[in-house]
Amino acid sequence: MQITFLGTSSGVPTRSRNVSSVALRLPQRAELWLFDCGEGTQHQILRSDLKISQLSRIFITHLHGDHIFGLMGLLASCGLAGNVERVDIYGPAGLNEYLQGASRYSHTHFSYPIKVHTVQPGVIYEDEEFTVTCGMLHHRITAFGYRVMEKNRSGRFDVEQAKALQIPSGPIYGKLKRGETVKLEDGRIINGKELCGPTEIGRKFAYCTDTVYCDGAVKLAEDADVLIHEATFAHQDAEMAFQRLHSTSTMAAQTAYVAGVNQLIMTHFSPRYTPGNDIELKDLLKEARAIFPNTIMAHDFMVYDIPRRREKGSGDPD
Fold it and tell me: Binding residue per annotation — 67?
């Protein structure tokens, strides 16, 4: 699981930061999932190492322009390129009507299937590898945060050891790979877990923007390997954050601390904190790290690989 930041500014783009969009690349299945799609997102993808042809799912937090104005253009380009098989889009009520209206008035017809899913808190997608849930955030309009959970995987099966034990290959190997206990024809009982390496713990990724500090964000971020959280304002501008229902750097850090996450990545920064101003982005980072030390700041085209954790007690050094 690899994260690429395509836009890290709030409200409007700047010379160095585009508006909101984050890509989650799943190399094991050659898929690309997108979280929000501000204006210019398709240009950002073209400037990155990502492949639009792998785009399969888009998750929209809310219907403010800096999170959706790039959606129609991206979808239209995917159709013209002809290399996208299907796109499922998840978001709040009104998203489908927005896309239908834009398609109708621009006379855009897609050459591939698009399915819009109106989300409600809870599980919104699940397959054999991943579960995606969403939860309510606290913003000026209906807004959702998302949580992607990778399912645990059995450790690597030791084929050579199985052969040394003279276990016949075939369906039995499949059961042993899943950690099951099997009885052989000669009466021996084999515990599959003893032939497998440490269980690979599924990674957890949470995306929370736009929101002021709220319990919903904490719940989505609980025990996450990575939390991407907006930090529009500095702590000094907390009153403005409460008025506009956005987060400060300290609110993002508090969410990460209470949720027990491993890594906090802040994004969605107000352009008011550009270099040379009284408060700069480095000050927001300092504020956040005072509460949650394991904090970094996102910038456009930053790539972050979510590390995999192994089952505790596996004997690994870490």
Answer: yes
Q: How far is CA 167 from the centre of its chain?
A: 41
pLDDT digits (tens, 9 = 90+) for 211-242: 999 999 999 999 999 999 999 999 999 999 99
d(CA 222, CA 115): 29
Question: Nearest-5° angle of CA 86, CA 63, CA 82?
Answer: 20
CATH 3.60.15.10 occupies which residues in the chain? 2-153+200-305
Q: Is 210 annotated as a binding residue?
A: yes
Known binding residue 225? Answer is: no
User: Is the peptide bond between 210 and the residue preceding it cis, with omega within 30 degrees of 0?
Assistant: yes
* pLDDT score, position 317: 40
- The CATH number assigned to the domain with range 2-153+200-305 reads 3.60.15.10
Q: Quote the radius of gyration of the chain (alpha carbons, Å).
A: 22
- 66 labeled binding residue: yes
Q: On the CB side of 91, how many CA atoms lie within 13 Å of its CA?
A: 26
- The reply to whether 278 sits in an annotated binding site is no
Percent above pLDDT 90 for the chain? 75
At which residue do the structure tokens 């239209």 appear?
76
Report the catalytic residues.
66
E-strand ranges in the chain read 2-7, 21-26, 31-35, 55-59, 87-91, 114-118, 122-126, 130-136, 144-150, 181-183, 189-191, 200-201, 204-208, 226-230, 263-267, 295-297, 303-305, 309-310
Q: In what order do the strands lie in the sheet with 122-126?
A: 122-126, 130-136, 144-150, 204-208, 226-230, 263-267, 295-297
Q: How far apart are CA 247 and CA 114, in angstroms?
A: 33
- Residue 147's DSSP bridge partners are 133, 206
Nearest one of 259, 244, 170 to 210, comparing CA atoms: 244
